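anyone seen this seq b4? input:
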Amino acid sequence: MSFKEQIDINKLPEHIAIIMDGNGRWAKNQGKFRMFGHESGVLSVKDIVEGCVDIGVKYLTVYAFSTENWNRPIEEVNALMELLISTINEQAETLNKNNVRLNAIGDIKSLPQKCIDDLANVMKVTSKNDRCTLTLALSYSAKWEILEAAKKLAQQVKEENITVDQINEEIFAAQLTTKNIPDPELMIRTSGEHRVSNFLLWQMAYTELYFTETLWPDFRREDLFEAIVDYQKRERRFGKISEQLN
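predicted toks r here
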């Protein structure tokens, strides 16, 4: 029985987040340059998006470029930006065909203007799609996001729009870039690393974490389905005991 056949469609995670790791190592293992790995990783993104659409996952967020990635060699950063721009444009028709809405979170204004413009255009042309929302975390840092939210609330207090005592989890979460997206129930990280790397720290307070040795360019929808099957075997108690869930 395939992993897809083992999935309980009634217990799907509504939102899956993925740290796509291992492109560089995958390329090195094949005696290729790092960019070959990044280019091959795009095929994995496409297959995973289609896998989510196939079974009914409503939200998929992928960690495409972190703020820390700006510290990589300038040649690799420039090549990644060019790859991002070309991929966004090439996939617009496919996103519409699959009824997928494109979204983006992060310090978008720090991206090259061409990237900002093309991203905005594809987000606009896919804005009415409602089968699945694909969110690209670009120039993203969870610490940056939390600090920005704190600054916004501090400004609102300063302007006397709210009081300090009114600030709660709901109001704070409304300041985050994911304010219109449910928190992920499942986070997948490829390549054998066991850390969350400054990704959705607030949102993943109760997220189930799944780590696989598979390098991202080799990760396909059957691997996604395997992660979902593993997720469905877990008991999500949210601080309660097992008996309270029955």
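The longest strand covers residues 132-140. The first helix runs from residue 3 to 6. kinda curious what u guys think
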